[in-house]
Amino acid sequence: MVVGEVAVETDVLIMGGGPGGYAAAIRLGQLGKTVVLVEKDRLGGVCLNRGCIPSKALIHTADQFRKLGDLGEMGIKLPQERITMDLNVWQDWKGGVISQLTQGIAHLCKENGVTVVQGQATFLSDGRIGVETAGDFETYKFEHAIIATGSRPFIPSFIEVDGEFILDSTASLQLQGVPASLSIIGGGYIGIELGMAFAKLGTKVTIIEMADRILPQIAENLVKEVIHNAKKLGMNLITSARVEKAMVVDGQVHLHIHSEKLGTEVIVSEKSLVTIGRIPNTEEIGLNRAGVMIGEKGHITVDMECRTNVPHIFAIGDITPGPALAHRASKQGVVAAEVICGLPSAHDSAYVPYVIFSEPQIAGVGITREEAERQGYSVKTGKFPFSANGRALATNEMRGFAEVIVDEKSHILLGMHMVGPDASNLIGEGVLALELAARVEDIALSIHPHPTLSEGWMEAAEAALGHAIHIVNN
Amino acid sequence: MIEFKLPDVGEGMHEGEIIQWLIKEGDAVKQDQPIVEVQTDKVNAELTAPITGVVKNILFSAGDTVEVGTTIFTIQEENEVSLKDVDRNESGGRQEQPGYEETNRVTSHGQLDAGRVLATPFVRQMAREMKIDLHQVKGTGPAGRIIESDLQQFVEISSFLQEHPDHNNDTILPEREPKKKAKQSKSAEAEPEERILLKGIRKKIAEHMVKSVSSIPHVTHVDELEMNALKELKDQLKVYSEDKEIKLTFLPFFVKAIVIALKEFQTLNASIDDKSNEIILKHYYHIGIATNTNEGLIVPVIKHADQKTIFQLADEIRQLATQAREGKLSLEQITGSTFTISNVGPIGGMHATPIINYPEAAILSLHKMEPRMVVRDLEGVIRLMMNMSLSFDHRLIDGVTAVQFTNRIKELLENPIRLVVEMR
Description:
A: seven-stranded mixed sheet; B: about 425 residues; about 25% strand
């Protein structure tokens, strides 16, 4: 720091340009504030560059690759040669997708008067921030700050991610070739999504999960179909097992795992991927100098207005307690921006949908049947299998179901969950229904277009009322 | 087993007092059968059984104050199997459940997750803009959902209460009645005003008030009382009153003190017969207790109050209040008073100009009791203070007499030992 430096003054300083940070910046710009957005790497954060978007690009590619094999039964004749996957070419295509998105964000920031600074930001006090750029250090004075520094993969101390043999999720999306075998430590949603994608591309995938089943955070009835499909894809699911050691021997990864059932075993694979969880990036940004408190797990506690214990400093996204999901971060970003501008905004909804791009997809919003019963509701449910849906059959994707959870007394919807084709898109209806405090009749009585997968919701709602058309009502 | 939680039966109430249980543990009840009577600061409500079944546990006693959302009793479904069958049949067609929404509306706040407010994102946003806590708003939409017009109504009621802090209980009723109607009629939500025929008890009250004010020259005199000693006595008597299962309030002591004072200042227990132009001095002491009910202001009468003990008075006041709220008072029970007390204390307010219950000569309003700084022996001390407003007929009573009368009441209540000595 230079003595007598001149600090740049701004209304709001945002640390982190991910989906939370850039949404906040654009909204603040719309509301007429001067905004400095500091991003140490690339705009778009994990979501665009290393998470949601590249992983969905890989999953889509793997889906297409896999589906080629199913075309024969529909009468499409493919050349006899074995189809192959060139991940190198894929990387270019993926780069193009990401680049288009990040350029779009940069453009929106510019149009809304947001100054984007590339560098590493740290708090100097509760009103100043220092930004280390290439060989330079600048200070900024702010009225309000929004911390949106996100999270990174958690890697246990006994595993060393080298990016070549032992990978984190970021490195796995930068592979130049399809590995022959891949062992994945952690059967949560990232492990399952990437594992299934690689399995479709022909990789022999092994998943090692500590809990007694994969996707332990998701209700068991929703996961069954995914387990079934994983096995069909030739994936080896090892549950109730713990990885004790990971080492690279002769260009192969050796994972020493232990489980009560199997004892100690060594899994050998070409690559290994660690997806155990994520930890918030709350160290090394000088939070103590700003007086911002963090909790035991490193998260910053905020109120419904996304305000930290320091009233003019806000925190949004993965660094706040709650699911590490981009859409939650974006919502919080907009809320923080509006609160700073004196608008009566709040992140006051419990309805944060979740989406898992497994095969088939799982998506949901609200609570499950078990949770509802635990909370003391008398519950009614309605379930409709895609095997009874015309569109699902016509597109050869009939696995899964739509399920509605209903309060028996008021008929208000408590949760909507789906396993099946395109569940990720279809859950939008569930979010809207729950936010509008809809009754199950509201779904059942709305005309859903035919033939579509969305009819699944209507039939599940009708099933809850005991009069679904396309299944036998119990 | 269903836990019945105290619902918000008023407009945004926080708590309510259990007035009385209409059933006891183990009773078999039918759906919609009255179970308990609850009083809030604005309304009295009879809460009904959510299902047909057996009342298992009653968790509060009459007289207890309970917060909204607290479980007050549990009820076991009569026959689980048969109920499920019924439900299956009913759910065959949505139109077969016409009463469903209404019964549910009463209990939905309590039954649903306490953290969830049934309102759309837009309404929640509106509420933030209007600085309204949605937990205090009663929803009139489907299944108790809070809709935009509910917010508007909430604001109207709040501002009315703010503008009329000293309103008498009955003054809000003309406002409330049309609002209730407005809720029932969907098209009325858009109407800026509504006309309702002045009829029934409300009309009688209106006529009575006009007659009283136009024929009696009202003058109001205000004094304050120090309540510490009386409170101490009342607290000491609590053990005995509980033994007798009587809820002891201050009111019986007031009745007693007033009766003693009335015997000494006879013109206050009198009336003027306009036709014969005579003063009627009454040697019987029938004290009217102005009571707010859903129908309006009713004045049940304690006959021969001078001949009753404090506990007898307490018991009778409670019984009369209950009957008043249930609309079960006989004509005899609401006529013949010689002096009236209007106890507005529970509602609040400093002073009032109570209107005399025609043809009586005076009415005494009791106001909110509260700790206030007062001067005793040239030192500022905090005492439990209460104001009282006496409106009197200036034709019969001179200002001096009125002041002497309240002085006497003050003397008896501030030194309850004297009250005890002088009681008959």
